[in-house]
Write a structure and sequence with these properties.
Layout (H helix, E strand, L loop, with lengths): L1 H23 L8 E3 L6 E12 L6 E7 L2 E6 L4 E6 L4 E5 L13 E7 L2 E6 L4 E7 L6 E8 L4 E9 L2 E7 L3 E6 L5 E7 L7 H6 L2 E6 L2 E6 L4 E8 L2 E9 L2 E3 L10 E7 L2 E6 L7 E7 L5 E9 L5 E6 L5 E10 L4 E4 L3 E7 L1
């Protein structure tokens, strides 16, 4: 069994690495999207609160507020950056490579909790932990550990010593590890089928923890699996499809779900929109998986797309603005600004 798993990993290794690459380039190309925006289903909008001009610009992903610092991954410099609320760089963790404490180009900053930043590296199949100084905002390497099942895709923290991990081609939909990387238990056994490039991509899910449950979202297929915590263990209660999702077909595929976050006791997701839509939207769901409606982020008059990320626990979001370059056929940043808005 172990040898067959290793052979499968070797066979699909370049394909699995595309998962990380697709997530880092989720706004680089347009997508063929299915869905319908019903204006009667709008439950809120984002009102701009602050604009921060960044001293070190770049394509930021997974933007977090920790104390009075902005922690984000700068895809342009391939580093984890700590900014002040004025936009100045106070600390930068930049160690490219595949050795101890180093991050390859397939690394992702997934979560900042309890003063730690958790980074996954799908090339080395490991998790890197950084500590954040609450007074100075400095980023310091603390530890790392390797995942022994599948190819790591995402991570969230349920409690200080309970890490929930999703892996492509794993035996489980969600695997639990402790803070030292020891496997504890797996949830929702995966049915083994013949592996193809499409199957590998469909097995890539992103896990998001909420106060009373978890959301496991299919990055490429738009499926949403909602879990509740019964006796402190996640139990699958419902499965839905995102209101907007990318049409199947084509390699490399385009991500359907770009971001998921816990909001109140439910969830918000951000995904790809078709070209004809004139606003960037979030989808809101309850903890049990009922669709509550859309949150309008921004009218797209001079903007083609925004990538939205949660910013603290008070209903704030952070995003950058992009415009489509017809000649180069990719999205480019409009400016060096980080927009902070409040959901109302």
């Amino acid at each position: 069994m172990l040898s067959s798993t290793i052979n499968a990993l070797k066979r699909f290794y370049p394909i699995v690495l595309l998962i990380g690459l697709m997530m880092t380039q989720s706004c680089s190309q347009k997508a063929d999207v299915l869905g319908h925006f019903d204006k009667k289903m709008v439950k809120g909008k984002c009102v701009q609160q602050q604009i921060i001009t960044l001293s070190e610009p770049g394509f930021l992903t997974n933007i977090f507020l920790y104390d009075q610092y902005i922690i984000a991954q700068n895809r342009t410099s391939r580093s984890i950056v700590s900014y002040s609320m004025e936009g100045d760089v106070v600390s930068e963790y930049h160690k490219p490579g595949t050795g101890p404490g180093e991050m390859s180009e397939y690394s992702n900053l997934w979560v900042v909790k309890q003063g730690k930043a958790y980074i996954t590296d799908s090339r080395s199949n490991k998790v890197i932990l950084l500590t954040i100084d609450p007074q100075k905002g400095e980023l310091v390497f603390e530890d790392e550990f390797y995942i022994d099942s599948g190819q790591i895709v995402s991570l969230d923290v349920c409690a200080p010593d309970r890490l929930f991990v999703t892996s492509a081609m794993s035996d489980y939909k969600i695997s639990e590890y402790d803070q030292k990387g020891k496997f504890v238990i797996g949830y929702e056994k995966v049915k083994k089928t013949k592996m193809t490039p499409a199957k590998v991509m469909e097995s890539a899910y992103r896990v998001t923890i909420s106060p009373k449950g978890a959301l496991n979202s299919g990055i490429f297929n738009g499926e949403l699996e909602f879990y509740t915590f019964e006796n402190n263990i996640p139990e699958l209660i419902s499965t839905k499809r995102a209101a907007y999702y990318v049409k199947k077909g084509g390699m490399p595929p385009r991500p359907s779900v770009l971001m998921t976050t816990s909001y109140n006791e439910g969830y918000l997701i951000s995904n790809s929109l078709p070209d004809e839509e004139n606003a960037s939207l979030l989808e809101a769901y309850t903890q049990h998986g009922e669709f509550e409606g859309f949150v309008v982020v921004e009218d797209q008059k001079d903007v083609d797309v925004v990538l939205v990320y949660p910013f603290g626990n008070d209903g704030l979001i952070a995003y950058q603005q992009y415009i489509w370059d017809e000649k180069q056929e990719k999205f480019n940043l409009i400016n060096n600004e980080l927009v902070i808005s409040e959901i109302q």
